[in-house]
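ok so i was messing around last nite and threw this chain in just to see what happens. nothing serious, just curious
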Amino acid sequence: MSDQAALQELVYANRILAHERVLDAFGHVSIRGSETGYHISRSRSPELVALEDIQHYDADSGIIGSDMRGGYMERIIHGAIYKRRPDVRAVCHFHSPSIMPFCVTGRPWVPVTHVGATVGATVPFWDEQAEFGDTDMLVSTPEQGASLAEALGGHSAVLLRNHGAVVVGGTVRELVMRSIQLCRNADVLLQSMVIGEPRPLTHGEVTLSGVKNLDPRVLERVWDYHFTRAGL
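result:
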């Protein structure tokens, strides 16, 4: 994929995740750069992101070039994760209402649907207050970014206390699939709690189903579906 095509796919990811109510006025998506650093929109609501909004940052989240338009304050999240995780090619941070009950209560998110398995068996929990005390709750310093990246570890997602979630992927399409399924699995999990105790997938089911649903042919099918739904 050319650099231009990759940036265009980043734009589509913003639009798709906004349409699917993963992102709202807030939240952001990035992709790793071809050499170093990453690409992300200027500070703009994801549903409105266009190709000309994409900015380029170095590994320390400093702007590359002369683009002085304001960037997302929490872009630190992206830089910190790319530094720690060479396998990650795309990152998304969001505050979907679907996952907020788990962020507020600390109750573990667990996979209960076969497509929820794309997120993995465990989603760790990061408590900014426990480490940094009272803050504005934004992840905006190198220290906060590094702490969050450490909490994420080798997982595919992490929940932020009273704040939202961060999801990573090996490709943009994997990231989109995983971000949507983190939220949809959360919806099913919450509904299930009303009528009984949810039965999570086993570790074996998570492994087998996760691999199956991240097959490139499946990801292409999912991408085409959401691409069309978003009117792209």
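not much to say yet. The mean pLDDT is 96.
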